Amino acid sequence: MSDARRLATALSALGVVLLAIGLTALFVGSAGLSPGAVARALTGRAETSSVEAIVTLSLRLPRVAAAALAGAALAVAGVGFQALTRNPLAEPSVLGVSSGAAFGVVLAQILGFETGLVAALGVAVFAFAGALLSAAIVYLVATAPGGLAIQTLLLAGVIVGIFFSAAITVIISVVDFNRLSGVIHWLLGNLAPIPLSSLALFAALTGAGVWLILRHARELNLLALGEEAASQLGIDAERLKRRVFVAAALLTGTVVAFTGPIGFVGLIVPHVLRGLVGQDNRFLVPTCAVAGATFLLAADTLARNVVAPAELSVGVITAFCGAPFFVWVLRARSRPA
Amino acid sequence: MTALIEFDHVAFAYARAADPRTRAFAFPGLSFAIERGEIFGVIGPNSAGKTSLLRLLTRVLSPQRGEIRLDGRPIAALRSWELAREVAVVPQDAPRPFPFTVEQLVLMGRYPHGPRRFFEDAADAAAARDAMLATETLSLAAMPLERLSGGERQRALLARALAQEPRLLVLDEPTAHLDLRYQAETAALLRRLNRERGMTVLLVSHDLNLAAELADRLLLLRAGEVARVGAPGDVLEQGLLEDVFGCRVTVDKSASGRPVVQLAYDRG
Predict the structure, then answer these.
(1) Is the CB of residue B146 less than 8 Å away from at least one CB of chain A?
(2) Residue A11: in which H helix or E strand, if any?
(3) Which residues from B are below 8 Å from A1, CB to CB?
(4) Residue B166 region, left (φ>0) first, then alpha (ψ -120 to 50), else beta?
């Protein structure tokens, strides 16, 4: 079977799972709607002001879309950071990039970006800047003379993450709390319903980031040979690294701007997918986009329903899965081959 | 007719000691040529410039003055993948971690032949298969590179370079990590590739006797300058070697008539 056929098969199989989870997410929830009522709303046969129409179309559908976008973006950002650092544990939250982006968002909020499309764009720009800044710091610290040991990179990420979390705490303490309503909930990763215009922006930025990394998937494979060997094969290693770095930061910043810092998706999803489709980034990037969407949708559906009528932040669920997973991967890697 | 590779008064110095472990080093103005179809060996003491020469040739470094030409064209004017179609490098070893299989590694050698392609095409697959056949790595195709022995890994890396279908094959210390049997096999394979495919080979090595056995001509480097270029018998001379390496040696002849250099250990 040709590579393209194999990829198409994998994507269709994952697409079916995504569709199934997406439909499940639309049909379950604390409003206790009957499946018939949800189906009526989805097919446009319910009154626009009816409960089922509002819950299904204005609450659940945007949330499902936001979860899918965030999951796809985070998983692909993880693949990007992992290829750049040649470290399968590299991931937006582990590297502290999510915290940097969150700092940007909190800064944008005290500057008064609140609602509307322009504000959403402003917040996204700040989040992107924060993500770039923190990723650059981690990179500079980890590539200082002495080599790029895996532990150095992870430690640098943890330190940068702690620093930006502290900076956020300072801002929250200093600024009038009412102006930062919901920040605590948001900081745990919160998929609140997003207005349609913001959702479109979210989709566009996610699409751009995924596309940038996907375009360079083949070159990212060659980067595993080392930068000198990659450049001897005709790759501009510096430009490649810069582009993927920016794209991964863009994806992280976008997710944090719209949903808050959700951890570990970029660790769990690529790791599982490597077991299924192999190490080739040309397979990993697109399949991780679909599987990341599926994973976060499932996690969010769980978050909405386990303690109903209250709900958990989705970041709590991914952290509960991700932290043990991180330890497991770290141990598996430390074991001599 | 021009030579395949020409170094024309190439001057290069590292801007400053970026890495304090490396000593200050410079090519004041290096000139030599590699002819089509020959096996050309570069030898010399540590920090004589062997690795820097290789990096200049593959444009990892750029000369400050002078010019390096491929077929009479300055390599500085080529696109990076154009150069990679002509010059392929076999590194000393693969980096770790390296998560790919032998086949995936070999297919990476096809990148310069279609840098815009997302997946390799049938011609790429055929070239990769041919390269694995020539290096007897076809049976290892599905194996992760990290599971192979040193000798097998070396052959897989060679297969990747052959998949580039280059005119010049560059080997950086090809036998550094190999035991005697694999050294002999690698030498035989290189000789066969040179003879059967007319592939020009540039061999950079510490191993004077391997270079003497394989190479048609040798370049002996001393501190960034040519100490001597010529047939192995002319370059591997006791007096010259003792002068360049700063130790006592004896030079004999092997069964094939090539010089054999031995270190004369000081027993005082």
Answers:
(1) yes
(2) helix A3-27
(3) none
(4) beta
What digits encode the pLDDT tens for the residues A86-116?
888 899 999 999 999 999 998 888 887 766 7
The whole-angstrom distance between residue A279's C-alpha and the CA centroid of its chain comes to: 20
State the SS3 of chain B.
Answer: CCCCEEEEEEEEECCCCCCCCCCCCEEEEEEEEECCCCEEEEECCCCCCHHHHHHHHCCCCCCCEEEEEECCEEHHHCCHHHHHHHEEEECCCCCCCCCCEHHHHHHHCCHHHCCCCCCCCHHHHHHHHHHHHHCCCHHHCCCEHHHCCHHHHHHHHHHHHHHCCCCEEEEECCCCCCCHHHHHHHHHHHHHHHHHHCCEEEEECCCHHHHHHHCCEEEEEECCEEEEEECHHHHCCHHHHHHHHCCCEEEEECCCCCEEEEECCCCC
Interface mutation vs chain B, best among A219, A233, A280, A333, most B CBs within 10 Å: A233
Taking an 8 Å cut-off on Cβ atoms, the answer to whether B108 and A4 are in contact is no
Going from N- to C-terminal start, the domains of chain B cover: 5-263
The answer as to CATH 1.10.10.10 being correct for domain B5-263 is: no
Q: CA end-to-end span of chain A, whole Å?
A: 31
To probe the interface with B, which of A82, A85, A232 has the most B CB atoms within 10 Å? A232
Q: Is B120 on the interface with A (CB under 8 A)?
A: yes
Query: What distance lies between CA B27 and its chain's CA centroid?
Result: 19
Q: What is the pLDDT of residue A175?
A: 79
> Taking a C-beta distance cutoff of 8 angstroms, is the pair B236, B212 a contact?
yes
User: Which whole number is the average pLDDT over A51-72?
Assistant: 91
Best of B16, B80, B86, B96 to mutate (most A CBs within 10 Å, chain A) = B80
Which residues in chain B have their CB less than 8 angstroms from residue A222's CB?
A: 108, 111
What ipTM is given for this predicted complex? 0.89
CA pseudo-torsion sign A227, A228, A229, A230: positive
Domains of chain A (ranges; CATH) run: 64-334 (1.10.3470.10)
CB contact (8 A) between residue A232 and residue B104: no
